[in-house]
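Changelog excerpt

This revision adds worked examples to the README so contributors can see how folded entries look when concatenated. The first example is reproduced verbatim below.
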Amino acid sequence: MKISSSIFPIISIFILLSISSVTPSDSDDSDDFDDFFQCLPKQSDSSIPITDAILTPNNSSFQYIYQLRANNLRTFLSATSRPVAIITARHPSHAQAAVICAKRHDFQLRIRSGGHDYEGLSYTSDVPFVILDMFNLNSIDIDMSTETAWVQAGATTGELYYRIAEKSNVHGFPSGVCTTLGIGGHFSGGGYGFLIRKYGLSIDNVIDAQLIDANGRILNRKSMGEDVFWAIRGGGTTSFGIILSWRIKLVRVPPRVTVFTVQRTLEQGATELAYRWQQVAPKLPKDLFIRLQPEPINNGGNNKTVRVSFIGHFLGQADGLLRLMNVSFPELGLTRNDCLQMSWVESTLYWAGFSNGSSIDVLLDRVAVNKVFAKEKSDYYKAVIPKQGLETLWQVLMDIENIFVQMNPYGGRMEEISDSETAFTHRAGNLFKVLYGIQWSESEGGVNATARYVELSRRLYNAMAPYASSNPREAFINYRDLDIGSNESDETDFEDAKEYGAKYFRNNFIRLADVKAKIDPKNFFKNEQSIPPLPSH
């Protein structure tokens, strides 16, 4: 569902009227603010003045920048307070100063790269806070002699794909489908895309990083140590520090790849095909990834059905794909006319939903245009959903209507990497990962509709409980979901954290908490689902 940009003036007025600023109300608080702002220039590089990067509610551009990279209107418009300032860092020292001064003057720091956190934790809080916006730190330095690149946190996935393509048509990188994701946060939760079965996650191809710790120091892999380097790859970096940049290893791709989308309705045998997909997709050769995406279709009145899309990506040409499919998944009936051949970078546009033939220049568009009210949840499946379970899913989809589901196959490279190799634990034993998403528009009631739609998302989640992973029911941290457990904005109770920590990280949670105790023992870096320091015994 897309929302017209014409609603944003209305939204801006609504925000200004309904969101209270945390501007100080007495002289003591005013002194705290003044001291904080005076601290910043003293702790940053004077050749690039940080004063030019500081926005407060008194700046005319404050509201625009605040909402520009706040991509979920549900969390944005339900926020009860605004940040006291936004620091739009233009130099690493600006980020260092933000840490030092926020810590010294008792302001919480929220770090935003692309603003795609599903629960808005990178730009909302219930206590006085500052947003450190990394968006301007977006350099990408590619070294083809070593097939590596340094990518700053504020760069987007689209920019990364574009810059790689400038250098080579036989290199790519395994990362997200959405092209406006900020690299800083996206990688730290794992980084998932259509190359997962061939090359694993983004973090499986990260070889170094620059991290600002709670003391404002810039650390690399060697100086942070292997435990911290392990934790920031899949553990969500904002519990441990601020990612300045990642060093990645590029991967090889053929000059031409093949993509396809085949759609079938329930009346065309979609249930049988979806059942078969579960058995086939995780076991296909690594070069082939097929996402299953069911969506409800209302043809008027009570004439409802579900249309299931099989969306594929093959690292090779169409003839080889057809031979493979005829052996492994002939039931789908893939034909040559279903197949599109293109370069790898063009396939990133296909997955992002751009029309065939679009210029790759759209990858340089850094901000999401069509913002929605949304609620997302995730699941991992370790066993095939029986046909009865699929029929339950179809019925709930038709009842709710404004909802989508993405089922992404595992297998391949993901089976080969230990669940303790990085902090990302969801590896072998999973058949597929699922995203449930429900979206609505401002015209449907906006904030007033939130409770109803959130409850509908929970209804679908509950309906699928008998078939999903259990004890714990696992979840993907990049599909953040406060329903699975949370803390208050300024508290990180260890017992509460264990609840969501087990779902996101399984047996890796305790090790993550131990790393946290070493690098940030006073728990400066925190949010509602952060990892607390492991209590001492």
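The second example, added in the same revision:
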Amino acid sequence: METPANSTKDNSGYESAEKIILRWDSTASEVGRERMIFGTDRQEADFYLQAVDEIQRSLSSASISDCSHNVDADNQSKVKTTIQIAMARLEDEFRNILIIHTSALEIDSLFDSSTSFSSSTPTHHDLEDDEDCISDDSGSSRNNLLQLHHCESSDSSTYRTSSSIREVDLMPAEAICDLQAIAMRMIAAGYLRECIQVYGSVRKSSVDSSFRKLGIEKLSIGDVQRLEWEALEGKIRRWIRAARVCVRILFASEKKLCEQIFDCVGTDIDDACFMETVKGPAIQLFNFAEAISISRRSPEKLFKILDLHDALMELLPDIEAVFDSKSSDSIRVQAAEILSRLAEAARGILSEFENAVLREPSRVPVPGGTIHPLTRYVMNYISLISDYKQTLIELIMSKPSTGSRYSGDPSTPDMEFTELEGKTPLALHLIWIIVVLQFNLDGKSKHYRDVSLAHLFMMNNVHYIVQKVKGSPELREMIGDDCLRKLTGKFRQAATSYQRATWVSVLYCLRDEGLHVSGSFSSGVSKTALRERFKTFNAMFEEVHRTQSMWLIPDGQLREELRISISEKLLPAYRSFLGRFRSHIESGKHPENYIKYSAEDLETAVLDLFEGYPAS
């Protein structure tokens, strides 16, 4: 395109220029109403721009001296009117070029590009939601991939050096040249505000269209906070994927287009047009994350908040690069403040979770002494926390003070942190949650009327804790082998306590004391006492068998180990007792009423224990 020349004006040049301007006046000319100058006849477009330059030179000359160049006051007014007509026409042309070259972006391709070029690994929940991602299988989708540019020129803006940002060419080069040429004339004539407004309104509509395709809804902070959490979880997943596209591709490409059109026109004009276009959409985008960051805290929100935090932390360098001007300070500040609030929310939720575990109020014993729902919930929660190890280590900066935590309060457990020197603050949090969980479980065990069942309950639950720690390499590393050994010792102690509470009294029936007639130890056996002893043993064993077959040890290996331990104590004692006293019973009447079981029968019966249903 022609650029403004510095030649002097003569009357013939002005009159020719004026004719061209008036010929395309859409308010007075039929051809001006029916046709657009740009995009049809390149020569006409060049002539029109030359005419605008000529009129502008006339106006500049008239401003220097009203009397020079034969320009009187009337003629000066006429020149101003002509330039106004020209600017109105250029504004229409500018708008038309923007509109006809604004095409729908291939959102599928944008998702693929943003994912492929992400500098960070997906979050735990991103991996869970892979099936929700936009499909890339069709050939047409691949053919429609937008052309991506790596801007490597030495004079490129700083933000283009980020490996995660990929700029899309939003308009063809010829259209950009036309827009640049028009913008130069409008700004030179004092129509900067009109130029920015037209540009912003058209491009913002395009950005809004892309937002709709990305699934970004126009929700106020209040709207977001009124939604049920289940609905928000899906929206958070979509927001994370969409935010990557918006910052790294959509906003970056809009900034590139502004620079291509306006960078050579004047200082900060490209920034003004960029913010006119994307400020509203950017605020809309980040308002969603802000609403989540200040929403009511609850344990189930932690992991989505961490996903949001990680995604925003990953995007922050790109946000700072794309919104790097003074006029876009507010966007950078908003993103940084949201990140800070998300971090604070995560810390708060973790702290509140500790208290929730401690205060969980359920008093109804779980049937059969099996694993309490609280234990499952807390340990699954802790396992997920370990998946966010790196993020949480960075968020939890303050280490609990050494010495006893909550010491002296009977409603809370004590924990000596001096034994845990060298642990990260996150590891101490997790160990403390496990300590709190055990404390709560111990309280729940006291609601069982049967002391044996209380011990079995603790054995089951602490064993579950141990297995969950062992099953997560990250969690095991943080908890440490010393703590794991202590936990293992606790469930084994609970198993020993169960055996004592249940089987000592049963085995007590198989002692010799009380069966011999006084003064005749070698041969004097009281058959009456012996019969009572067998009857007592039979009744006690049957009661244990009847009751404890309905108790449950869900872990097969633990169940088998406890049965073996019981058999190793019971069967030798019974065989020995039977061997010593069988003949005294069998020599009397109805021996089957007293010797009801063989050792093999007991061994089989022990296999019925802890299955969780009545034995046959």
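Reviewer comment on example two: Residues 1-9, 67-71, 116-162, 398-404 have pLDDT under 50 and may be disordered. Residues 229-262 form the longest helix (34 residues).
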